Amino acid sequence: MLLQHGHAGIFVYTWFFFVIISAIGYSLRRDKPLIKARPVTLTISQTTSGVIALFFLLCYYLFDVPCFLRVWGLNLSIIVWSSTTLVRNLYLYIQYRYNQNLLFKEGLAKQQAGFPLGAEGPVDEFGYPTDANNSKSKNSDSLHYT
């Protein structure tokens, strides 16, 4: 009964091998700044739910599993994957707004105090300049990315 359809089995085993290699690479590079900034729990839960969703999607070809178990497992794993994606995007948006406040708070404080500051260029829906080069903030001149 195992591997009723050979191509599906090869795909699943190749995918699981890829996930294991990616997880090992993720754990080895954990101290790198770009990976350290990612929340570990979100990354692990999103990867695990993706693997479970793939398993339940293709288990029809590999094992004799009742339909209700496949649908139940697939739906729960997609809900977990979607929720972690939503939380990750919300976290990135909050981080973006926080950095906007740090970069442009001097200009906004003067503008709220009644000084005519006027943005030189396009602004977003909250009044922040969309381009750091066009802002009059002193903080934007001291940004050096390496």
Describe the overall structure.
The protein has helices at 6-28, 33-36, 40-62, 67-112. With 146 residues, the chain is mainly alpha-helical. Helix 1 runs antiparallel to helix 3 (40-62) and helix 3 (40-62) packs antiparallel against helix 4.
Uncertain spans: 137-142
| Shape by Cα distribution | elongated
Q: H/E element string?
A: HHHH
Proportion of beta-strand residues: under 5%
State the end-to-end distance: 55 Å
Based on DSSP secondary structure assignment, what is the total number of beta strands? 0
Treating each run of at least 4 consecutive H or I residues as one helix, how many helices? 4
Radius of gyration: 24 Å
Which structural class fits the helix and strand makeup? mainly alpha
In terms of quaternary structure, the protein is single chain
**Average pLDDT over all residues:** 75
Helix content, binned percent: 55-70%
Most strands sheet: none
In short:
This protein has 146 residues and is mainly alpha-helical.
Which terms summarize this structure?
mainly alpha, 146 residues
